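Weekly structure sync, notes
Attendees: PL (lead), two postdocs, one rotation student
Agenda item 3: pending single-chain targets
PL asked that the sequence for the first pending target be pasted directly into the notes so everyone works from the same version. It is reproduced below exactly as submitted, 212 residues in total.
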Amino acid sequence: MDHRRIAGRVVMATHNRGKLAEMRDLLAPYGIDATSAAEFGLTEPEELGMTFRDNAHIKAEAAAKATGLPAFADDSGLVVDALDGAPGIHSARWAGPERDFARAMATIEEKLRERGATTPERRKAHFVSALCVAWPDGHVEEFEGRVDGTLIWPPRGDKGFGYDPMFLPDGLDLTFGEMMSVEKHRLPPAGRGLSHRARAFLQLAEACLEKG
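Predicted structure, written out during the meeting:
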């Protein structure tokens, strides 16, 4: 497959400040000027997809058509084995309109205990990030990353966002909520590229980006 190169200015199809900061951090070494959807005054499209990839495509395509620029979109979430894959594509909705992820994490913990999932082997989960880049002419590039781990309680750390404080990646002693951004998101050699978003971005960078 021939991939299209990304250069110049792009719009980030998100109103989530945490995602925006992470993506700007990842794009910085490539000289990409990333503007947010909020700066364009764009409303968020209704996410009616059945998968992370579907929803990333919906968001990127809407932003590209509205701005006339290539648009990046991420759709990501937490998939919990013992909860039959929930919250999954509804991860943000579990936090409510006020984005209360402390409440969302407490809800997950409550549901895990209701199912007797109290041991580490019963608390397996993974984060998924689907990245989509859409151009105004309809061209689309799609990539997906995943990181496996275990859910802990109580949550630890105040870095990151969302469900990070209760997610302990496999083979590590720190939750995503305890990790510095450079360790979690920056790609080697600057960082370790541990997160699901970094893993998806690495695929995208290899296909579509060039360092200046």
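Discussion points:
- The first strand starts at residue 9 and ends at 12.
- The CA atoms of residues 43 and 119 lie 42 Å apart.
Action: rotation student to compare against the earlier draft before next sync.
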